[in-house]
């Protein structure tokens, strides 16, 4: 998931907040996730706008596992992020649906790392859905959903 709409760029990118639209996007996608995928684990960027997005999603979803991860910042290394996510999946078998809340461009690169050849462009608040086969360490990209095209 890409974070919701944020305030304009500034010198301290990590401190940008969600706008009121971004807060609405996060809550709407939280409702959509609850109805369609029921995530049980959350991995979120330390940047404020990603943390605020996660808080909006958490209003409608209960997570068994939550962690803030500095590897999923905008300029993060997608291979390291994918490896870390796969390690967490293996370590937490009780969690069957994972939500990663991050930023462009790393969310697109992360999808490509997990499902080669698929690099969707994420609108703010958008969620890409992948099916992960842990035994093969392979993912299949299924779809992408943005706040303006989901019904809740």
Automatic annotation (TrEMBL):
Domain of life here? Bacteria
Region ranges (Disordered): 1-20
- Extract the coiled-coil ranges from the record: none
Q: Which Pfam families match?
A: His_Phos_1
The record, for NCBIfam families, names: sixA (TIGR00249)
UniProt name for this protein: Phosphohistidine phosphatase SixA
